[in-house]
Specification:
- This protein starts with a helix and ends with a helix.
- The strands form 3 sheets. A 6-stranded parallel β-sheet has the order 9-8-7-10-11-12, sandwiched between helices. Strands 3-4-5-6 form a 4-stranded parallel β-sheet, sandwiched between helices. Strands 1-2 form a two-stranded parallel sheet.
- Strand 8, helix 7 and strand 9 form a beta-alpha-beta unit.
- The chain has 2 domains: 156 residues, Rossmann fold (3-Layer(aba) Sandwich); 170 residues, Glycogen Phosphorylase B (Rossmann fold).
- By secondary structure, the chain is α/β, with parallel strands linked by helices.
Length: 335
Amino acid sequence: MGAGHVMRCLAVARAWMARGGRVVLLTCGLEELLAVRVRRLGLEIAPLAEAWPMPGDLDVTLAALRGESGPAWLLLDGYHFDREYMAALQQTGTRVCVVDDLADRAFFPAQIVVNPNCYAHRLHYDGPPGLQTLLGGRYVMLREEFLAMDRHPPAQAARPGRNLLVTMGGGEASQALLEVLDILPLAGVDDLSVHVVAGFACERREELLRSAEAQPYACRVSFAVENMAPLLSWAHATVSAAGGSVWEMAYAGVPAALTVLADNQRLIAAELAAAGAALALGRSPGLDPRRASRIVHRLMTDQTLRKALIDAGQGLVDGCGPARIVAAMEEYGHA
């Protein structure tokens, strides 16, 4: 999974902890820099040696749950958690909340399903009687640093824009970042200033640094940035993968041109473009350089377009998603 899955779980975890709860993160193969951040936020980490469908995942998870003194909630975020896995948890009396994007499993043995995507209302979730579905932008999981932001950054008054943030999420996406850097000189944006943020799992650091140094515009590269909020305040626009970070940008009021790195991002990019909340660049690697550069040029130079994208994006996300999810868990417990 990409780091975005961890990040949205952290948003719910912090909302749970704000209500006096304790949180343990059970995960496999967590990047060390991300693990440091998780611990700094006050979570415990229980490492899994292997991921489901290897049985060790379920064995360790059930052992951790048995160690709890009272009823526990397990928040699941991963496309590999199938019906068999969820059913095994249900048999132990564990309360299960599944974070999902695709509704690609025929049956969800769970108490709650959360799908924060703008297309979620068109999907069908089948599960046991009483399954609660929390669907759409009201349940976007934003972390505290974004909720503390000014939702109308002063940078958006710029006409035309010059500060461009390029980010492809927290995972390994070096090829997509390099592709965008090669395209940007074609955009013809005066005084362009670019800040590239590579993820926790970036493998081609030296190549990215060399590419940035060779660009005809001001360009810097940062790795594994813990707090993206100041960069969003700086940016007039972003080029981003259509992953979980799109909701942070929408909330913060930073218009985006979106690339698709994986199949699960395709619907997000298409829906946000249809809603007038983002521009669609296409699949990466494989972007059309001329088309992509024209889109970036328009995004940076057309203040009217940027304002329309901001208004549409902020209409989708109000920042209260984590609190609503925790409230649903608490209400189920009281019932």
